[in-house]
Amino acid sequence: MRVVRLFQILDRLRGLRTPKSAEDLAQELGVSVRTIYRDMGVLQDLGAPIEGQAGVGYVLRKGFFLPPLMFDEDEMEALVLGTRMVATRADPDLAEAGKRAAAKIAQVLRSDMRRAPDEVPLKAVLRRSDTAAGEAGALRLLRHAIRNRRVIKAAYCDLQGQVSERRLRPVGLTAFDLVWLLTAWCEERQDFRNFRLERFQSVAETGDRFAPEPGKRFEDFLKLIPT
After folding, report:
1. What is the pLDDT of residues 31-42, one digit of tens each?
2. What's this model's pTM, rounded to 2 decimal places?
């Protein structure tokens, strides 16, 4: 139905920082580019704050509130699996937050005729148990340091067994299959460095804050990774 498709278009434009082309929208929704152009015209006539044009792409104007839509089956499975992975891989605070998020999702979806989240047959399993309390404590501290832009001091043991003292600006965390990896701007090296959480011998906040300087942010680090 066209009304459903109009909501799907708004949902796909939600949170975009760069314009999404009509061609991409047409491919995602299984319709023609001409149909997307017509739908964009309808949405703009109805007052939806969509900026852009044919050949350029479309975004929603900042500040526009779009109420949440019902999840489709793939979205529900992604959310359920994501919260279950968090519950097995994160520190206790983040794991508990994942459980609360799953409960909120369940409350919304139980009014639907489809499967409830606890009926989705997807499971996440932690493959190692030797990281336990130490890594979980470091993870919690580092998450808060990243959020609040706090400089940390750390003692780190590298793969050769050498221990070094560092002052770091933590900017991002990556969960790999078996390890958590901290990306930080190292004040001693004046460059990005990556650290495995289980190799930290100690981690503590210094009380100092840092500004998100261009060239020293997580997004700047990601640009250095070959794609």
Report:
1. 999 999 999 888
2. 0.64
